[in-house]
């Protein structure tokens, strides 16, 4: 027997999820296109004035960090830790700044500003926070209760729309955003991912993020490559994660803590490092690293400085206190690692580069399932799925020895929670989710 009020409530929940997913899908597409425009503009500036970034980049770093810290501190960094924190107390934080439209707008603009300055940041992590903010806003407008599942669904749909990788969006929700992935949440996540994915598909077509790859390796080389990429990626990714946590959540009264008491000068210094790295390497460190990654996956080559220079630029850009994510930059760093590992294998098809991407990315974020699916969907290469899984599992375990706490959950400890008027908060700093 049907219960009419319950059916109405369920219909309103599904409507809110669909409307939110469509809107965040549109926002993700607009974000991607705007990012291409600003990065193209920065490339034009560098082509016309090669030394301009030595002044321009540090100034933008300092300005972005200053404005973010003063007006919208919740928009700093990746955005994924903020969604994790908000999802742990959805009733009290749904109306707060962590997932508000104001913060989402600041994240949108701030990330574009950083990309336009040459910072080694990505838009995918910020898309997660922006999408969660949109999903929460739609639910509040339609007077539908905001649960952790709503925020998780918004963030997962953001990943799916940002990379055109729907399965990776679901995997990301399981591994990173949800500490307990209940069946009710699973349905909401898949509904949001499908709706947002259809919007992206309708506007941008059925594209593959890095282009289609068909390369594969013989079994002995696949095993050796997976072990090498897993070990090296796990160590390098774990060290990067440990360093980033140390810079963003420093020890009280330590050197980094004292330096960060002057955030504008800290960001200015970071901008100088990024500018010097970019100018010194002929532009290898600017932006997301998408172009160089695609070249490497296609069997092309880049400078030996690509890997270390991008590690430095990504680390500094991520720690400066301005908006920007590390998803795409980490994939680029991993491609550089794979390029270094490929030489002994005489691999000209980019397959070892793929393993390097998986190894480093899994080492950084400690989400092996997401790492495998996201790279597989971005390259449309299913022939490498078993070596990819092996690499990710090895990298995840090795990284856990280097940095036991998962990156985004460790960064969540540094997220400042501003109490919402009329609501109670039990803590001023978030606690990490169970890994």
Describe, in plain words, how this protein is organized in 3D.
By secondary structure, the chain is mainly alpha-helical. The protein has helices at 4-48, 53-71, 80-87, 90-93, 101-116, 124-141, 148-163, 166-177, 183-204, 219-248, 255-259, 263-280, 290-297, 306-319, 327-342, 351-365, 368-379, 385-402, 407-412. α8 runs antiparallel to α17 (368-379), α10 (219-248) runs parallel beside α14 (306-319) and α10 runs parallel beside α18.
Note the topology.
Layout: H1 4-48, H2 53-71, H3 80-87, H4 90-93, H5 101-116, H6 124-141, H7 148-163, H8 166-177, H9 183-204, H10 219-248, H11 255-259, H12 263-280, H13 290-297, H14 306-319, H15 327-342, H16 351-365, H17 368-379, H18 385-402, H19 407-412
Separation, N- and C-terminal Cα atoms: 42 Å
- In the CATH hierarchy, what is the architecture of the largest domain at level 2? Orthogonal Bundle
Task: Compute the number of strand runs.
Answer: 0
CATH superfamily of the largest domain: Clc chloride channel
Q: In summary, what is this structure?
A:
By secondary structure, the chain is mainly α.
Features:
Clc chloride channel, 2 domains, 435 residues
